[in-house]
C-alpha cells in the first residue's frame, strides 16, 4: 500500500519522489485517477538562501508569475496549515536531464529567453537552474514557483545560462552531488 498525503480533505497516493529543493519535497501523486504534483514545504537549513514564510511565498510567487505570463503549471490546491501545494504535473524530462545526457538544449534557449524577458519586464528573476524546467510537447515549462526581485546578477544571461550546457559550473555542481 502506498503512502498517502492529504490536502484540504483530498487524499493523494504517493507514486514517487520527483525532487528535493531548497523549499520542499515534490512528489508525483495520484487522486481520482489523475497524476499531479504535491509539494511539501520543508524547513531544512539552506546556507545560500534566506526564506521568510515559504508557503505564503509560493502562493504570492505563483500569482506574480501568472501575471508576468510565465508558462507554469496550474496551482490546483494549497493547504496553508500543512504547508502543501498541489499543482499540475508537466510530464517530460528536465533541461538538467537533457544536459546530463549530452542532448543539446539550444532549441529551447529562445523559449527561456522569452521567459526571462517577461520576468524582467515584471521586475522578477526566476530560478534558471535547469532542474526547474521541463520540456513537454516541445514547450519549455518553468515548474517552480520561486521568483525574486530582478537583479542583473541573477538573470539568465549572467547566471542561468552557465548551467544549460556542460560548462565548468555545471560540472562543478555535478561533482558536489557525488
Structure, briefly:
The chain is of the alpha+beta class and 178 residues long. It contains four helices and eleven strands. The two termini are 32 Å apart.
Describe the structure.
With 178 residues, this protein is of the alpha+beta class. It folds into two domains: 4-88, Phosphorylase Kinase, domain 1, CATH 3.30.200.20; 93-177. Helix content is 26%, strand content 32%. The chain has four helices and eleven strands. It has a six-stranded antiparallel β-sheet, with helices on one face. It has a three-stranded antiparallel β-sheet with strand order 7-9-10. Strands 8-11 form a two-stranded antiparallel ribbon. The longest helix is centred in the middle third of the chain and has 16 residues, at 106-121. It is globular, with a radius of gyration of 16 Å. It starts with a strand and ends with a helix. The model has no long low-confidence stretch (mean pLDDT 93).
Backbone CA Rg: 16 Å
Tally the helices. Answer: 4
Q: How many beta-strand runs?
A: 11
Order of helices and strands: EEEEHEEEHHEEEEH
Strand content: 25-35%
| CATH C-level name of the largest domain | Alpha Beta
Tally the structural domains: 2
Q: End-to-end distance, in Å?
A: 32 Å
- The helix content, as a percent range, equals 25-40%
Low-confidence stretches: none
Shape: globular
CATH fold descriptor of the largest domain: Phosphorylase Kinase, domain 1
Please identify, by name, the CATH architecture of the largest domain: 2-Layer Sandwich
Spatial order of the strands in the main sheet?
A: 1-2-3-4-6-5
Q: Can you say what the CATH homologous superfamily of the largest domain is? A: Phosphorylase Kinase, domain 1
Average pLDDT, rounded to a whole number, is 93
Indicate the structural class.
alpha+beta
The biggest sheet, with number of strands, parallel, antiparallel or mixed sense and barrel status, is: 6 strands, antiparallel
Amino acid at each position: 500500500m502506498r503512502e498517502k498525503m492529504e490536502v484540504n480533505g483530498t487524499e493523494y497516493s504517493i507514486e514517487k519522489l520527483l525532487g528535493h529543493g531548497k523549499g520542499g519535497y515534490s512528489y508525483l501523486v495520484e487522486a481520482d485517477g489523475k497524476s499531479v504534483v504535491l509539494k511539501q514545504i520543508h524547513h531544512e537549513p539552506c546556507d545560500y538562501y534566506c526564506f521568510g514564510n515559504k508557503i505564503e511565498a509560493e502562493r504570492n510567487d505563483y500569482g506574480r508569475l501568472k501575471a508576468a505570463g510565465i508558462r507554469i503549471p496550474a496551482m490546483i490546491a494549497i493547504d496553508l496549515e500543512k504547508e502543501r501545494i498541489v499543482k499540475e504535473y508537466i510530464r517530460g524530462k528536465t533541461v538538467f536531464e537533457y544536459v546530463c545526457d549530452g542532448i543539446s538544449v539550444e532549441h529551447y534557449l529562445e523559449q527561456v529567453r522569452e521567459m526571462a524577458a517577461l520576468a524582467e519586464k515584471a521586475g522578477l528573476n526566476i530560478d534558471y537552474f535547469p532542474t526547474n524546467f521541463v520540456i513537454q510537447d516541445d514547450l519549455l515549462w518553468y515548474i517552480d514557483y520561486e521568483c525574486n526581485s530582478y537583479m542583473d546578477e541573477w538573470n539568465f544571461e549572467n547566471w542561468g545560462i552557465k548551467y544549460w550546457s556542460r560548462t565548468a559550473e555545471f560540472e562543478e555542481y555535478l561533482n558536489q552531488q557525488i
